[in-house]
Amino acid sequence: MKRFLLVAALLAGTATSPALAEDTGMPEILMGYTAYLSDADHFNSNGERLTEYWQIIRQDRANFHRFGIQDAEDEWDDAFSTVDGRAALEQLLMAFPLDEATAAMIVEQPVLIHVDVLGVGGAVTGVDVTLQ
């Protein structure tokens, strides 16, 4: 099992508060979900094959939330149910690339992943993707 911490800037539109200034700045797990990246997740809404792991993970969330295409292992998340949330997820994933072997595995075959959504003071700052 390999873990990949992907920390990026706060999501666009996320408000900051004075309480954040007092925070230690250490990310905490805000929520998590498991997803099976099936063959359906490897194609976009136009039927085109996706070639980047971040596209596949985003498509999985679009399939789950928008199109009702859900695998038995797929779980609900509160962070990526909107178009803007899924765009932010993709940006977080692109900010710090996975190693080539893991990225290739996600692109080339169905895999089970777990995603922890990380944040500071309740604001999302990154995701931690674990291959299961």
Strand order of the largest sheet: 1-4-3-2
Query: Helical proportion?
Result: 25-40%
**Number of helical segments with 4 or more residues:** 4
pLDDT averaged over residues: 84
Largest sheet: 4 strands, antiparallel
Distance between the termini: 6 Å
Could you name the ranges where pLDDT drops below 50 across 5 or more consecutive residues?
1-22
Please describe the structure with a list of short key phrases separated by commas or semicolons:
132 residues, alpha+beta, 4 helices, 32% helix, globular, disordered N terminus
Short overview:
The chain has 132 residues and is α+β, with helices and mostly antiparallel strands. It has helices spanning 18-22, 53-67, 83-95, 100-108, and strands spanning 3-7, 28-37, 111-120, 123-131.
Furnish the topology, listing elements before pairings.
Layout: E1 3-7, H1 18-22, E2 28-37, H2 53-67, H3 83-95, H4 100-108, E3 111-120, E4 123-131
Helix pairs in contact: 2-3
Task: Explain what this protein looks like in three dimensions.
This protein has helices spanning 18-22, 53-67, 83-95, 100-108, and strands spanning 3-7, 28-37, 111-120, 123-131. The protein has a 4-stranded antiparallel β-sheet with strand order 1-4-3-2. It has one domain. Helices cover 32% and strands 26% of the residues. A hairpin with a 2-residue loop joins strand 3 (111-120) and strand 4 (123-131). The chain has 4 helices and 4 strands, in the order E-H-E-H-H-H-E-E. It is globular, with a radius of gyration of 15 Å. It has 132 residues and is α+β, with helices and mostly antiparallel strands.
